[in-house]
Structure formats: C-alpha cells, structure tokens
C-alpha cells in the first residue's frame, strides 16, 4: 500500500471523527481566478509531528485529501494533484506552524480548506476560499440625527419659576414707571408758590 493510500485512509477516518466538532467560523478569502493563497495551521506545542491538509468542495460536495506533511518537511500530495500547485512547508519556533500554498485557483475549487494533526485531537478553524467571487460591499453606518429638544430660553439655570418671569418683569417695570411718574407729579405741585396753590384751591371751590 502506497503512502498516499495510507494517508488518505487515515485522513478519511480522522475527518469523519472530527468534522462534527467544528464550531468556530472559518476565515473567508476572496481570491481572483488563477490567483494563489497561503493558509496556515498552528500547533499549540511541538508535539504535532504530522499534518493532513484537506478541502471540502462546495459544488461537488466532496471531501478531498490534499497533502501530507511532517515536521521534517517531507510531503506527499493527494491523488491526481500537482506538487507545483499544492506545496507544503513547516516552521518551528515557539509553536509549530504548517503552511500550505495553493496556486492557480479556479472557480470550481470554492470550498472549505483546513488541516488536521495526527497526534492532536484538535481541528483548526480553517479557511473558506472563494475564487472568482467578489467580496461583499460594506454599507456605511447609518448616522441617527438627534432631534433637538425644545427648551425655554427665558428660564434662568437655577430659577424654579421659568418662563413666568417673562411676564412678571414687564409688569413690575410698568408699575415702577407709573410710580415714578406719580412721584414726579406730586413733587412738581409741591414746588409751586403758595399763591398759585391758593388760587388753584379757590378756583376749585367756586366750581
């Protein structure tokens, strides 16, 4: 049995056991026709010595094994897949990062792409690659205009009476003006000569 057949059989068994555990939302990549994408899978430690790359094609509803890669950089492509189109690599630092580069993507390759680790019961989020599909346009956020509140312009900040003062103060002003006028009149008559006042009194008595 060839390595490709062994990998594919193991991959199918792991995929069937793990697909039901996918809960996170995959990353969506909008790619041009004949474009390329580079996707990664990170291992939380250095125990992920082997990785299996796969994809689920949306149009044909098929699960396809893409690539096997180990920590030493050895790789094996899936059946009828070109080694120039599907190229794997691995880098080691604080974490082990496996990378898959895909070139020449076509519209019929729209689907979900991800990986599985042989020694880990985890499944990375993965990527939803959509060659030839335009990304959705983001609508600008709607700005809600605030309706200005009607306020009483005549109300002082600390006055409890509010607009009542707009009527009260003119009334007080009119009363003060009348009082000043009356006081001025009385003062005028008080300054008249006594003779004039006597004559004015006598004239009123004759009437």
Automatic annotation (TrEMBL):
MF-aspect GO terms: coreceptor activity; MHC class I protein binding
Spans through the membrane: 167-189
Keywords: Adaptive immunity, Disulfide bond, Glycoprotein, Immunity, Immunoglobulin domain, Membrane, Signal, Transmembrane, Transmembrane helix
Domain Immunoglobulin V-set: 33-121
Membrane-topology annotation of the record: Single-pass type I membrane protein
Leader peptide range in chain numbering: 1-24
Any one annotated GO CC term: membrane
GO biological process per UniProt: adaptive immune response; regulation of immune response
InterPro entries cross-referenced by the UniProt entry: CD8B, Ig-like_dom_sf, Ig-like_fold, Ig_V-set
Localization per Swiss-Prot or TrEMBL: Membrane
Pfam families per UniProt: V-set
PANTHER family linked to this entry: T-CELL SURFACE GLYCOPROTEIN CD8 BETA CHAIN, T-CELL SURFACE GLYCOPROTEIN CD8 BETA CHAIN-RELATED
Name the UniProt record assigns to this protein: CD8 beta
Species this protein is from: Cyprinus carpio
